[in-house]
């Protein structure tokens, strides 16, 4: 089939959500200017640069109690910082619980039954159970076409890795099976790895 997004697809569910997959999940923790911690998952998320290390995530909806955005973006606008918590397979239910549309001022850490701890380089909480955490300072928020669509970019100021996932100097994702978002309500966990050497890789 072929369709133009402006004219609709005629299917029961939007196929675009299942085409660009798998997508890593950015479990973004923030703190409001009033000191209330927030935690929410975003599947439009990725690393975008090595030096300095940078990440981005996109927010594509709004809450009635925020100004055309969600708590996460509102908090980052106010404080200029956020943390990205890596979601392991073991944390899938807590991640899902934190996606609930709670009122502004609610603490998703508590709602999801998660212990939290204080970041080192920014004023924000993180998920200690996460295999890795990226502490970030805001670099820019880009307004995207479409209502309530924004992309948030941040520079990584601190990296936290649980020691048990470092094997021979490498971060071994097979040990915690990172969760990824597929289409619709589907997710996947990374359980199988293989390597490919680039044609110009002299270390192969």
UniProtKB/TrEMBL annotation:
<dbReference type="GO" id="GO:0016646">
    <property type="term" value="F:oxidoreductase activity, acting on the CH-NH group of donors, NAD or NADP as acceptor"/>
</dbReference>
<dbReference type="Pfam" id="PF01613">
    <property type="entry name" value="Flavin_Reduct"/>
</dbReference>
<dbReference type="InterPro" id="IPR012349">
    <property type="entry name" value="Split_barrel_FMN-bd"/>
</dbReference>
<dbReference type="InterPro" id="IPR002563">
    <property type="entry name" value="Flavin_Rdtase-like_dom"/>
</dbReference>
<protein>
    <submittedName>
        <fullName>Flavin reductase like domain protein</fullName>
    </submittedName>
</protein>
<dbReference type="GO" id="GO:0010181">
    <property type="term" value="F:FMN binding"/>
</dbReference>
<feature type="domain" description="Flavin reductase like">
    <location>
        <begin position="18"/>
        <end position="173"/>
    </location>
</feature>
